[in-house]
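Q: For a teaching session next week I want to show students how multiple molecules come together into a single three-dimensional assembly. I've collected the sequence lines for a complex. Could you give me the predicted structure tokens for the whole thing so I can convert them for display?
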Amino acid sequence: MRVSIDWQVCVGAGCCAAALPGTFTLVESAQGPRAILLRPAADDDLRAAAAACPTLAICLEDDAGGRYPQDLLEG
Ligand code: SF4
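A: Of course. Below is the structure for the complete assembly, covering every listed component.
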């Protein structure tokens, strides 16, 4: 599972770090706190963390080409 975090969308709410501590954490940036990925996690855990993000900033792409949240938004 490939993971990226869109810092243009992340608002530093921290739900990802609360859902998966040790995998996501917050760092300070010029725009305020932003999430980074510290280490990989199980796909289901990553999906749960991405679903917990209030701004859909966590983007996932699986080996089958499935993309979140793009697939959700594009219907
Ligand atoms: S839950 Fe979303 S908005 Fe909040 S810190 Fe994580 S990536 Fe950013």
